Amino acid sequence: MDTKNKILDAAETLFADKGFNGTSLREITSLADVNLAAVNYHFGSKKELIKAVMSRYMNELAPRLEDSLVLVCQQEQQPSLLEVFSAFIEPLLSLNVFRDNGTSNFLQLLGRGYTDSQGFLRWFLTTQYPGVITNFVEAVQRAFPELTAEDIFWRLHFTMGTVVFTMSSSDALIDIAENDFDQSLDIGDVIRKVIPFVSAGVGAPLQAS
Q1: Is 169 helix (H, G, I), strand (E, B) or coil?
Q2: Domain map of the chain by residue range?
Q3: 130-139, Cβ contacts within 8 angstroms, sequence gap of 24 or more
Q4: Less packed terminus of the chain by CB within 10 Å, N or C?
Q5: Do 109 and 54 meet the contact criterion of CB atoms below 8 Å apart?
Q6: pLDDT in tens, 130-158
Q7: pLDDT, tens digit, for every residue of 45-99?
């Protein structure tokens, strides 16, 4: 494996486990068995390394997710919010083919971008991959046209909070399902369980003004 990918793999492992703020470049270079000069040469800074780790996943995910959402929007009948959110399932699970445990790792990294207050990362993702956001918002509006831009902002914010919490504790949830309910689940099953919940939340009746 070349030096650049060794650094990316080490950074991904540590960022997912300890968070962006909790991981130092020294820890990354130690795990990757490279020197700090190699990180500076390939990435220039920790922020650029974080972007590179996320881009590796987003470059794989974004085209699949955009296509999946376009199919929902192109339906003759008005889609349901459950159909909109279900459009995420297969693209997300395809990350397990792209990288070992890719789905779980990506969702943990995405969650870290919010819990670690990485504002630059959220800006980077929305500006570099605008098609995902545009197609998703369009699909939500088509499914629930009464929602205003403000409604969508708040409901998707709460949705992200639910997803981040669920994915960050997915291993524990899988263990609980096995020990308490005798269910053998994987990350795909967890995603399929949370999808109806968040779609119902986004589709909750509007409050009278």
Answers
A1: coil
A2: 1-44, 51-203
A3: 131/62, 131/66, 132/62, 132/65, 132/66, 132/69, 135/65, 135/66, 135/69, 135/70, 135/73, 136/69, 136/84, 138/69, 138/73, 139/69, 139/72, 139/73, 139/79, 139/84, 139/87
A4: C
A5: yes
A6: 888 889 999 999 999 999 999 999 998 89
A7: 999 999 999 999 999 999 999 999 999 989 889 999 999 999 999 999 999 999 8
Tokens of 121: 């990362």
> pTM of the entire structure?
0.86
**d(C-alpha 116, C-alpha 19), whole Å:** 7
Q: Domain 1-44 is classified in which CATH homologous superfamily?
A: Homeodomain-like (1.10.10.60)
CATH architecture of the domain with residue range 51-203? Orthogonal Bundle (1.10)
Segment (H or E) for 184: none
Residue type, 144: F
